[in-house]
Specification:
Strand content: 15-25%
Radius of gyration: 21 Å
Shape: elongated
Largest sheet: 4 strands, antiparallel
Strand order of the largest sheet: 1-2-3-4
Number of helices: 4
């Protein structure tokens, strides 16, 4: 079924044109990878010291036993596991945190990642 045949009334012609444009765009620029997986996502908010954290923790087979941790307040994300959260400077760099903020987060992460 083509996009044009899917939309039948005149009001949907504009929407059909948009989807046709997307089809044309994708035909000219093929994706290198397009994978859909089920994920488990956990949302947590907490304060540590004087800092507030709002995180989304996403687990999927695609991440190879790591967890995608998204800092919702700073729009930063990183693939983390129990090993790399211990590396000096890793959380500071990935989430643009001060040493104090990173240490406060580092204290919570083992419980959140397990």
């Amino acid at each position: 079924m083509t996009v044009q045949s899917y939309f039948t009334n005149q009001e949907d012609e504009e929407t059909a044109d948009i989807y046709k444009g997307v089809e044309d765009f994708m035909a000219e620029r093929p994706l290198l990878e397009d994978i859909t997986q089920n994920t488990n996502t956990r949302f947590v908010s907490f304060t540590a010291g004087s800092h507030r954290f709002e995180l989304a923790l996403m687990k999927a087979d695609y991440f190879n036993n790591q967890t995608m941790v998204i800092n919702l307040l700073k729009n930063r994300q990183a693939l983390l596991d129990l090993e790399n959260i211990k590396k000096d400077g890793h959380l500071e760099h990935m989430f643009q945190l001060s040493a104090i903020e990173a240490e406060e987060l580092r204290n919570y992460l083992p419980y959140l990642l397990s």
